[in-house]
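Course assignment 3, question 2. Fill in each field.
Student: A.L.
Task: Predict the tertiary structure for the chain below.
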Amino acid sequence: MGSKVRVGVIGAGGIARGAHLPGYAKIPSEAEVVAISDIDEPRAQSVADEFGIARVYADFNEMVTQEELDLVSVCTPPFMHCAASVAALNAGSNVICEKPMAMNAAECEEMIAAANRNDKMLTIGFQSRFGERAQFLKHLIDQGELGEIYYARVLALRRRGIPWWGVFVEKDKNGGGPLIDIGVHTLDLTLWLMGHPTPTAVTGAVFTKLAKRPGLFTRGREADQDRYTVEDFATAQIRFDTGAVINLETSWALNIDNEVNAYLCGTEGGATLRPLKIHKEVPHAGLLDYTPAHEEGREHNHAGQFAKVVRNVKEGTPPLVKAEEALVVQKIVDAIYESGETGRMVELA
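Answer field:
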């Protein structure tokens, strides 16, 4: 490998333009995006012109086999995550794939098998772990500040925030709605903060109550409601081998305030993620809340993620987000949808 990591990008849509390409652009001495592919070749060319990318492909298979790539960013819709990641891994590239990892756990396992077979890194775009706030809280938890965490409440709620663009609202292409779009971020972050206990059982419910209601959405979006085939709200209780429980709520449309947060409760203290606050009981002082003085304003999670992943590639070190951990998230998601359809608890091996 040369002094710069040679990067290829599969998919020239919003997540590539808004996160991956700006992320690599912030570390020009470490990484260079040399090629981009998209089935819409004119769109790929437009993005290439914008970001100074030398070569454009309409077929990602052609790109990963013809280019000498150290790292590939998979930025396609979820229904192509598995095929694109496996192709890049088989061609000898390391891969960072956007979330959700794939359409289901079986596809995730296929991706992991390809990474192991080719001895390459596979990591997933759960950028919330890389924020300063999350990193500081993880340090406190690892030092025992909260004790045993036995309960968490995980929220990723939008009052009105359906992404009508792209294929977000089409289940056969996106895999699901807010659960796999925004819910997985806070769920993954909470599992990481808790030290990745093993899930044993899931009870979930999914609803589509508001998204298809005539007249609810403005600017002509009513015409798009026929293609809306995902949930607009999902909730679940997840049980773990430690006895811990997570309650999850996530929505694109729900009659409640917007909130993205995690509340963690332990034997020695609790924590609220946004704003970061620690809740303690101090001998001879009683109940005490404190907020770290370094609490940041705007987090730059994406930039931190790509800088770290490029460093992992250069140094051959393991990524912060391991594919096997993302597989666990996907197994929980699959179980929530199954429980929502059957009305029964789903046990996980």
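Instructor remarks: Residues 323-342 form the longest helix (20 residues). Residues 133 and 296 are 7 Å apart (CA to CA).
Grade: pending
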